[in-house]
Predict the structure.
Amino acid sequence: MAHLKTSAMKTKNLVWSLLMILLSFGICSAQSNDYPFKVKISGNGAKNLIFIPGFMSSVDVWNETIGELSSTYKCYTIQFDGFAGQPAQGEPSLSNWKASLATYIQKEKIKNPIIIGHSLGGVMALDLASTYPDLMQSIVVVDALPSLSAAFNPNFKVQENLDCTDIIMQFTGLTDEQFKTMQEQTAGSMSTIPEKQKEIVNWSLKSDREASAKIFCEFNNTDLRAQLAKAKVPALIMLNSRFGQMKEGINSQYTAYANKDIQYAPSPTHFLMFDAKDWYLTQLRNFIK
């Protein structure tokens, strides 16, 4: 009888423990609803890495990178609302996303993170470094500029209270088939790897078009060049080889960022973590170690 009582007690304790674990997961989920993004955490190293994907991209863009690093680093991946199947909630805004991510880092007490961003995520890393210069250890920018619009329009100036109606109509007015065709054409210049092209297209097809249009409009109306003077932390900037053909203009964009290292990849495509994987990982490892 004593043996049966002990077994019953163990079973009760196990059920109670599992219940508490499930409740704790529910609490974490509720907490994440306070932010315009979801967070996936992997690895348990002493150093913290925060990964931000690009426009309409999934956190899966970092899978191979995290596979290489999670044994020695703790990795946080940020999936913003409206992109790659993550439901859109509220009014999307890059400035709100930036402030919310800074709040998350502070509240979760993530010490000295290295923020790694691709494309739009790289712009956010630059914005965070110049707005919250004491929040992080360093940043890594993968194929992004402080002002993409200024790279192709020397007279570009940020417009106050920009009306995004036309861009929203362009995004939402296409049929599903038209939008897919457009994304397939774009993906061909983003990566040379067919299976990766399919992933890129699928992420965009799963994105909320209206929310994406609003972010696209804000992104193209962004100019961080002057405020980079406020950034203190070291920055590794990895750019595709096409940008290497306009180094003078690229260098002028980053002039205000004092502590930077600009490197040009052997690949001309945008997704360097795919098409220039070995080069990209070598640069990344050497910088974050």
User: Anything to note?
Assistant: Residues 35-288 form a domain with the Rossmann fold fold (CATH 3.40.50.1820). Strands lie at 37-42, 47-52, 73-80, 114-118, 138-142, 235-239, 260-264.
